[in-house]
Amino acid sequence: MIALAIFAIAGIAGLQSCLVSTRYIQIVNDEKNLVLLSRIKLEELKTDITDIEREKNGTFPTPFEGYQWEIGLTDITITDTEYGVTFRPYKLTIKTQSSEYSTLIGFLKLDRENEKK
After folding, report:
1. Are 71 and 58 in contact (CB under 8 A)?
2. Rounded to an integer, what distance in angstroms lies between the CA atom of residue 79 and that of residue 59?
3. I need a labelling partner for 111 at 20 to 30 A (CA). Which of 8, 19, 61, 83 fits?
4. How many CA atoms lie within 13 A of 78 on its CB side?
């Protein structure tokens, strides 16, 4: 009877440890996906795959359909007169269904054609 009680206590401790480890693995996986999706969306913005003026938010395709993105552009433009380059600040937010999120703030380079519009 004593041996069974000790075995049950050890089993419960082992199960709890396993559950905690599984949760930490899920958290790390979500953080990895947030960074990956932020970089993917940022590259899409830089290469004009995503039209910032039309698309302000959306969801990612499979297998990341549980993640949503949102971008906010400021009305401010910053021009480097020496090189003739114009930048516009943005805020990119990637969210999960569990309300965890990642935010990137940076500058998008505008070409002269977009600047004139």
Report:
1. no
2. 32
3. 61
4. 10
Cβ(103)–Cβ(91) below 8 Å: yes
**Looking at the whole model, is its pTM more than 0.85?**
no
Q: Would you say the C-alpha torsion 31, 33, 39, 42 has a positive or negative sign?
A: negative
| Geometric angle at alpha carbon 17, from 5 and 26, rounded to 5° | 150
pLDDT average, residue stretch 8-20: 94
pLDDT digits (tens, 9 = 90+) for 65-108: 888 888 888 788 888 888 888 888 888 888 887 777 777 777 77
Residues near 92 by beta carbon (within 8 Å), at least 6 away in sequence = 38, 41, 42, 45, 69, 70, 71, 103, 104, 105, 106
Query: What is the number of residues in the chain?
Result: 117
Two structure tokens written together for 8? 């049950």
